[in-house]
User: Fold this.
Amino acid sequence: MTKKWIYMFEEGNAQMRNLLGGKGAGLAEMARIGLPVPPGFTITTEACKEYYAKGRQFPEGLEEQVREYMKRLEEKTGKKFGDPNNPLLVSVRSGAPISMPGMMDTILNLGLNDQTVEGLARLTSNPRFAYDSYRRFIQMFSDIVLKVPREEFEKILEKYKKIEGVKYDAELSVEALKKIVEEYKELVKKHTGRDFPQDPWEQLYMAIRAVFESWNNPRAIVYRRYNNIPDDLGTAVNIQTMVFGNMGWDSGTGVAFTRNPSTGEKKLYGEYLPNAQGEDVVAGIRTPKKIEEMKEEFPEIYEQLVKVAELLEKHFKDMQDIEFTVERGKLYLLQTRTGKRTPKAAVKIAVDMVKEGLISKEEAIMRVTPEQLEKLLHKQVDPNAPKKLIARGLPASPGAAVGKVVFSPDEAAELGAKGESVILVRPETTPEDVHGMYASKGILTSRGGMTSHAAVVARGAGIPAVVGCEAIEIDLEKEEFRVGDIVVKKGDVITIDGGTGEVFLGKVPLIEPKISGEVYELLSWADEIRVIGVRANADTPEDAKRALEYGAEGIGLARTEHMFLGPERVKIVREMVLARTPEERKKALEKLIPLQKEDFKELLKVMDGKPVIIRLLDPPLHEFLPRYEQLIKEIYDLMYKLRDAKDTTEAARILDDLEERRKLLRRLEELREANPMLGLRVCRLGIVFPEIYEAQIRAMFMAVAELLKEGYNPKLEIMIPGTIDKRELMAIKETSEKVREEIEKEYGVKISYMYGTMIEMPRAALLADQIAEVAEFFSFGTNDLTQTTLGISRDDAQKSFLGVYVKKKILPVDPFKTIDKEGLGRLIKQAIELGRKTRPDLEIGVCGEHGGDPESIEFFTSVGVDYVSASPYRVPIARLAAAQAAIKLGLKKSKEN
Amino acid sequence: MTKKWIYMFEEGNAQMRNLLGGKGAGLAEMARIGLPVPPGFTITTEACKEYYAKGRQFPEGLEEQVREYMKRLEEKTGKKFGDPNNPLLVSVRSGAPISMPGMMDTILNLGLNDQTVEGLARLTSNPRFAYDSYRRFIQMFSDIVLKVPREEFEKILEKYKKIEGVKYDAELSVEALKKIVEEYKELVKKHTGRDFPQDPWEQLYMAIRAVFESWNNPRAIVYRRYNNIPDDLGTAVNIQTMVFGNMGWDSGTGVAFTRNPSTGEKKLYGEYLPNAQGEDVVAGIRTPKKIEEMKEEFPEIYEQLVKVAELLEKHFKDMQDIEFTVERGKLYLLQTRTGKRTPKAAVKIAVDMVKEGLISKEEAIMRVTPEQLEKLLHKQVDPNAPKKLIARGLPASPGAAVGKVVFSPDEAAELGAKGESVILVRPETTPEDVHGMYASKGILTSRGGMTSHAAVVARGAGIPAVVGCEAIEIDLEKEEFRVGDIVVKKGDVITIDGGTGEVFLGKVPLIEPKISGEVYELLSWADEIRVIGVRANADTPEDAKRALEYGAEGIGLARTEHMFLGPERVKIVREMVLARTPEERKKALEKLIPLQKEDFKELLKVMDGKPVIIRLLDPPLHEFLPRYEQLIKEIYDLMYKLRDAKDTTEAARILDDLEERRKLLRRLEELREANPMLGLRVCRLGIVFPEIYEAQIRAMFMAVAELLKEGYNPKLEIMIPGTIDKRELMAIKETSEKVREEIEKEYGVKISYMYGTMIEMPRAALLADQIAEVAEFFSFGTNDLTQTTLGISRDDAQKSFLGVYVKKKILPVDPFKTIDKEGLGRLIKQAIELGRKTRPDLEIGVCGEHGGDPESIEFFTSVGVDYVSASPYRVPIARLAAAQAAIKLGLKKSKEN
Assistant:
């Protein structure tokens, strides 16, 4: 007994996705629920895996099973494979467990040869159709299976179109098509050295093999890598009776989404082409018609389609993307699958479906990925900015983008990798172009519709795209495009708006999006569901305001050093750094206190009533001095100049300059360190130069006192950076308490505040039980904690070895993007347990950049932190991700939270 | 009922050290076993603590108890305190639970006044003695209690010695002494504004208070800090009937050690002064006689002393340091305590006492501190080197030292703190000088004997010292000393040998000590007792040989980068670093392989049959290039030169130079890092540049293969530095196995080796269970693990904040000296448990510098490491410390070990 490698459609169902692939499972399910699906069967993904396991050999018994199931098809259809009198023709399509649109190959009309084509012509009384099908089949089969260059077939086709003076393939005469077939076969013989295979069985086996092979073609591999799809899933092969959309003008083919994949609107959306086969639509070669036009051209079919859409959505509880063919007035469904959608549509559909009672809020939240939400929060063209509109195409993928025009996908990939913003401009795109598309900020094509390759890929990747922009004439050789008189050359900057289809010349200012409508609704559900809080990292009142708009519940990290950097402050700060005694330092600090006080006051005012964690000075003092290399260079340059000084006045001036720089250099030489990351920074500054922290704490309490007197409700949390021992916390707390008493007396108010620390050195995590004796809150500074725990300096590593490590799979991901759950995760978990053992109500947060990373947020939720803090822009993403984490982990919000 | 503040000597015993102090407990014990101790009592340390607790007030009831116990003394002696007819005189001495020699104050002859001195004269028929005692008492009491400057008394004394033309105090006439007494009293009145106290009770209470106060005098505080003695122990006060060594030429006083404290020889050793009181000996003012001379001068007393010594040693089971006084032919013991000794004596005494059956091997091992052993392994003067002997003094503290001559203790302290080697040269030393003594490499005095202050302190601190070197004339004002015609000025270099008493002009080469005799024996016992192994960190065959001599059982760390630094190799290494492709790098590496192979071969040959851990390349590659700052400077200098070039030939040469440096600079700019400690180093080098590690591994296996063919038994352990993930180990292991197979084939031998890793990043420790899946051994690289776990860059921190941290007690000790047991200790413990869970026979070692630190060794023993590895010089110390750790922890060696 050999294994069962094949299932008839009606043997399967939607749950068998892994075995039958997405397409096969969809067809099976449709067949099961009685929708009009042309008969067929699916070769399982197991067969594909076995094919590779056996070194690219068909699994045992596969050929026999194919023959057996073909026989069943013959029985069902009454046709016979290879029989010139009543030939059975089939399509052979790939179908992986996870959708990879346009990535895999498909062969239609298989079974045609010099004899069956005649039979088909006789049976349909339509020789034009028969020979058109045959030439399509030869073209496809030769391209995919025999690897004969596609362009050569196109050349022959174009030649005959010119001869006959017609625009569309469908207008060619039978004679022309027969000649084309002959020329095609000669072309094949020339390229492969043998005749085009006439045996339908040989055709079938070769096609199955080609589908198996297509699983590992380069573009499939790239797609999988980009989308994190495992390489070992394999693809199924679907073999299905052909139905023909190109059997005349009462036939046609199309694709439809049950809702608008761009806006999410609940209305059948799609395109069709009369008298055409499916690949004409997908390839974007002929511009198809809008599905609404079917209401007039095919009114009954349209009605039928609307009903099918409703049935499918009820059945699958999600928006479906269907392929259909009309053969002589009869509707056939060829595929259904969960439809790709824009981020905007994803949110709207999810929210609408909750309201329609189709899905729960939790399901809705799981339907929108954090990446989609991120895309949705992409920038938009500023409506009030002056701009020069030069063209308008189809709004294929929303969002606005500014970038340099590039015409080659390779160049786009190259420049994109360097961090340049480019807009890829192409007549149309093919799967070979994806590497360049992914690297671009935006995509602009002159041909193709809303379901063209460019549109589908761009939407999937969330890259703004305008397609079918027929007004632009692209000259790939000259690397430029024209719109009327305007010439845009490679390197010129344009702006596109994928939400409106507009193309602007030059750089148009972009604006930040607002959160409203369905996004607001979805996020408010997320807030109901998530079990951890979301705060923002914000240093300025502007940041704080944006954070509030984006739903932050407090500030998890306000960095005081950023307040040291205003132009008028740098001078004072430098004075403080150059100070050699505590007295000198105090003098400089006294000038800083009122400035910092105002900063703190504004921040606390904006966040009134919400917690604000302010961190004491963190970076090494030498960061406030010029860079060493710069200083050395300046000194040497001045020394040159001194030699060439014209007169003593100039020499004296240069000498003054020199002296000032030498002074800076001397201090810098004292302060600079071999490893500043592990040096005199964080709270070590507060231990070695206590007056600095004292001044900052004074400014904070002054701000709080003034706000209290003004009737506000400031909630200050003072955070000590980089602790390694509770004694550091104790020493600084002593200062803090002393200053608080002074300020309370001075202002006549009572100040309450929380006192806590960042956990960013392994020792602090190891001694969390002791640290928690003093700290009322922890905030994991996961950036630095990653650096110290893994012994990796972020900036250095990213340029030298971290890429190699991820590429060689020594680390699964960049640990600065997603928290190192495996290693660092153990330490964090342990620290949380130790900390809570000492202080059960210890407030625990995360303020590293991981606080905005969905995967990391799931980890933090699982170990029980109280909140994450992210940059304002990532706050909505954190809210969604936190809700998804709670759902995945099965956690429910406690009432008190 | 008030507390019992006082114990008669016969009420106490040796176990009551904490309550009665060392001296009090010793006197009590001697009294208890019937030795001739003058009657007396002890005021407890509790009383002293209560004195401070009450704000420097006598505890309640203390005065009454003093009166009561004085009455008991009167009863025992038949004398009466303050009675001119038969006056009771007492000494008042301090005595802390831990010996602090010379640090505390003592008052003798208390009870004398204008009346009782007359009585004493009458009773003894010796007015000279009576008045000498009285003037001594006034001098001491005024100095210690009334704070009248000592020098002023000396001036008066000297004046009368000149008038009477005598050399010694004892030769002064009664008339002179009476006048001295009068002048002393006037001096006191002038300084204090009141008469010298005549009431014996007032004298007594003032003296007790002064002893309490002396606990917190500056030199006592310094001594405690240096010796890690807690500040809250308090001192006891011993009040004892006076006996008089200055009652004539049949009297005397002395100190004796039951064995020679310098050599350990079992023979009474000490000094005495006839017709003198104790402080004459201790202060080193009169040069005393050797105790052997008593055989002739006081034959019976000498016999008695020898018997007392034997009795005391049997009783205390340790070498004793006794003070005695002979009063008119009768021996009195005033003190016994465990004798301070040189490291050499410590070892000899410990070993001898085992052989004598007095103590066990374990006790012997606990008797020698690692610090003593370290001192013992101090350098010696090279006997074969040319040298200029300029003087010879007493060999007071063994070991040789080279340094600049300094005459001021303050200056010695200052220079010593800067790391300069200085020899402190003084006429004699006093307790005020200790800070300068501790900071010196050696001490040279022109006066004083083997038990003078200088000698005692130097021996205790293990500082080489030559004392009583009368040939040198010191001029403190001119800051120079003379020996005959030779003038040695401040800053001139001399060499002293504290083992021979020799003083040499200039720098004499020093040599490393050998381990032999008792040290060898003691260490062999340590080897029997310790439960962990001791290996050495050694990079060269020379190091390895020394390590073997010092008892290393293998090499725990051989750093391959040190092999990259030979002069002819730097060029090849630089070629490797500058390489831009693997091919270029391989070319350079091919030249290095034969060189490294020879290095490895030599090392393995020396260590034949013993394990040798060789670590793959560790430092960042830029360490092999010139320093950035240096290069920039050179380039700028060349640019100057270029402008001034005389002709085109010179310009061309300069341009060539410039180009070469620019090339170096470019590569350096690519390679240099913001935090090299956390950068592209350790096994990251092996992942990014696999050819480097492959070359090193090849060289190792070639060495092993050649040795096998030559009949040796090489035991190679390959160590991967800086792992953070098992996948690193797996990747490098793959290379290693591939190379092994190649070499095995090539040489026709079978190679076995161990494969393991350093644990020096927290992540490796956290994932020790996973790491142990691949690693057969761990070696904790505690230097780097301390840096990463505490987030402290060693070099940076030592200059900036680590000192402040230790001073402010935020960290208890420098974590780079003694392992941070509290924080890092948790991580290490956890890593060991995790590692052994995966691989029960995992070999675990330590190769950071902590491997040679006794306190750290105790920690490592407690957590179950298999061995520590230390620098060759510290191997003996590690052997001893490991044995002591096993004893303290109650661990026994398993038979198999």
Q: What stands out?
A: DSSP finds 35 helices and 31 strands in chain A.
